[in-house]
Amino acid sequence: MGRFVPGSIFVASLALFVVSWTVARGGSSDALHISQVAPTPRAVSTPPIGHLAEPSLTAERVVFGTEGSYKVALTFDDGPHVVHTARLLRILQRHQVTATFFVNGFWLDPKRDRDGVARKLLLRMHQSGHAIGNHTLNHANLSTLTPEEQTWEIVGNDLLISQIIGQRTKLFRAPYGKMTAHVAQLLSAYDYVHARWSATTEEEQRDPHEIGNALMDWIRKHRGGIVLLHDRLPQSVSGVALFLAELDRLNCSRFSSQLPTFRLVSIESFSRSPSHSATRAALSTAEEVAHRRRLQRVCSTLALRHEQAGNR
Questions:
Q1: What is the rounded distance in angstroms from the CA atom of residue 147 to the CA atom of residue 45?
Q2: Looking at the whole model, is its pTM more than 0.85?
Q3: How many structural domains are present in the chain?
Q4: 105: which of 33, 160, 221, 230 fits an S-S bond (Cβ 3.0–4.6 Å)?
C-alpha cells in the first residue's frame, strides 16, 4: 500500500478514509463516526520540515522494561498477519498468556484485506484481552518524513484501529525506534505512551530453536523486561511456542525450590506514570494471583507427565 496523502488536506483525507471504510464494511449501522473515534488533541506545533532532533518525553510517557523484576511482557510488532498471527493467538490461548500487539494499518486496508480476515483478527485480539498498540500505517521510518506525513502515519492508524475495536489505543511504538520532536509532541497531544523494549532476538536470521533459546538465555541473565518479537515471521511464532514451554519448565523447577518465578505481564505493568500507580498496583496483584493459579495447574500437569513417562 502506498504512502498516504499528507499536508493541508489531512482532515479531508481522514474523513474520506472513514467514508471509504464504512462503504467497505457494507455501510453497517455499527460503523463508528469520525467524531466518536478520532482523538481530540491538545495543540501541536509543527516544527520546520527536516527538523529531526531527538525528542524529549517525560518519564510517564515512556515505558521501559525493568531488569531483575521477574516480570516479562511479550510484545509483537508488524501484524496482524492473517496466517502467522492467527497461529500465535492459538499458542497464547493454549498457554493462557496475553501479549501486546503493535499494529500496522496497511494490513487492515480493505483494498488489501478484501475478505476482512485481518480486521477480524485484530478484533479477536482485543476481545481476547490482548493489548493493542499503534505502529503507524505503513511501518514508516518517521525520522525521514515531514511533520504532516508523521501525523498521518500515527493519527490515521489511530483512527483505523479505533474503527475496528471500538476504542482508542494509548500505546505507541515507533518503527525502528526512530522518533522525532514532532512525534513526541503528537504522543503527548494524543495521550500516548511510547513503548520501548529490553530485548529482541534478530529473528529474521534465526530458526525457531535459536529464537527460543535466545529468549531463555536473556530471561536467565536479565530476569525481566519487555521482549520485542514479530508476528509476521513464522519462525518467531514457532520460537515463542518453544519459549513458553521451556519457561513453564523453568518456572516449575524454581517454584518447587521456592525461588522467584518469572511472571508474564501486560506492558502496562512497567508504566512509571504517578497517575497510574493505583491501577498499576491493582493490575500487579491480579496478575500475581492469576500467575500463581496458572503455575499450580501447569506444574501439576508437568509432574503428572513426568510420572507417566517414568512408568513406561
A1: 10
A2: no
A3: 1
A4: 160
